[in-house]
Amino acid sequence: MKKLNLLLTIVLIALLVLLLYGATQSGPRIVFVDVNRITQEYTKMVELNRRYSADVSYYQSKLDEMSKELEEMRNRGASQAELERKQAEILARKQQYEQILQSEYEPKMKQILEEIAQKIDKYAKMMGYDYILNKAALVYGDDAYDITNQLIGFLNAQ
Fold first, then answer.
1. Kind and range of the H or E element at 131?
2. Where does this protein have coiled-coil stretches (predicted)?
């Protein structure tokens, strides 16, 4: 009987220790963000998109002028060879403009995305988060754990 009481006492103490330890230990701090909103509302990304759109409009206006010239050539009765040459020129210019835009904006976009990732890492450490997940990868997430607005504020304040 004494052995049974001793065994029960040990089991109860072990359970009590486990319960107390479990109560003081919290699980990992997990939150999520809407990455699309972050990239749409981050000031540097907004500015980059504005400049990109302006450049696209500029190059499109140049292509429109060339297309207008092609139409005028058709109306004047230019030869098929001249029309084909002008079409080839327009196509070559379009490809050139696309390459210019890509070579200028792709590195800038990559740099901003890397900057966002670094700042998210800094924010997570500062706030004590163990994980920040992308909302797009979640099946469900309670809005209480969505820190998108706070993170956008942090990014834009930096």
1. strand 131-134
2. 56-100
Q: What distance in Å separates the CA atoms of residue 101 and residue 40, rounded to the nearest whole number?
A: 19
Q: Residue with structure tokens 């003081």?
A: 24
**Residues 138 and 35 sit within 8 Å (Cβ to Cβ):** no
- pTM exceeds cut of 0.70: yes
Q: Can you give the residue ranges of every domain in the chain?
A: 2-157
Determine how many CB atoms are found less than 10 A away from the CB of residue 89.
Answer: 13
The beta strands (E) that lie in 76-141 are given as 131-134
Q: How confident is the model at residue 7 (pLDDT cuts 50, 70, 90)?
A: very low
- H helices of the chain, in order, are 2-24, 35-41, 43-76, 80-127, 148-157
Class of 2-157 in CATH: alpha beta
The answer to whether the beta carbons of residues 116 and 39 sit under 8 Å apart is yes
C-alpha to C-alpha distance for 76 and 129, rounded to whole angstroms: 69
Q: What is the pLDDT of residues 17-69, one digit of tens each?
A: 444 444 445 778 889 999 999 999 999 999 999 999 999 999 999 999 999 99
Amino acid code (one letter) for 133:
L
